[in-house]
Task: structure prediction
Amino acid sequence: MHLVTLRAHLLCLTLLAAGALAQPPAHDDQRVTEADIRAALRELPNGRVERPEFESLTDEQIRYLEGILSGPRSAISGPLVVMLASPELGDLAQRLMAYARFAGSEGFGSVPPKLNELAVLMAARTWSSPYVWNAHHRFAVSVGLPAELVEAIRTGSPPPENLEPDVQAVYDFLDEFLTNKQVSDATFDAARNALGGDRQLVDLVGTFAIYQMSAMLTAVDRTGLAEGEAPTLRPLE
Result:
């Protein structure tokens, strides 16, 4: 099967201990080969949605996998695996997910990583997604989110006092949005000011929505965690 050569400006992620990602570095051209795709398929985590063999891939699935592997990711993971069942959806969604995941890097979302990860963790908590949580909670702390706040989100407890003003404003925005399905003018203005403008606020809502999709897909699939990892996020009683 012929595999096209794709131009890649951003490749080869820097993986942190949690499996979450730092800023993706720029690289030269990369050809996505059959061997690359076969290797990626061998590393797919377990789940309920069928994991295809290379020989059964459709042209659409090949293009979907090439699109991922030629971008800022080095693996097919989490919701990207689930969407192999619907590669047309996957191709659209994976670009949105990359835009949100690499926020703070040139060409991606405009939300500072610390505040972007706050939205990711609150999305994971909303859907009790151990996969999304395990992929992000340590990274969130490494980019400046207080560990005490991360633990409070995990356990469904009130946030700690004396949070930094930007963290407090974004937490209040997301919490009020979840609770009331809307936000007051005062909460909106505080979050917009903390983030730096309308674009950043819209990108924050986008991250929150996209990672709820990620959490939902991995929850439906029951996507397996990395070998040796135990779930650290469970449904609240």
Observations:
- The CA atoms of residues 16 and 159 lie 26 Å apart.
- Confidence is low (pLDDT under 50) at residues 1-23, 25-29.
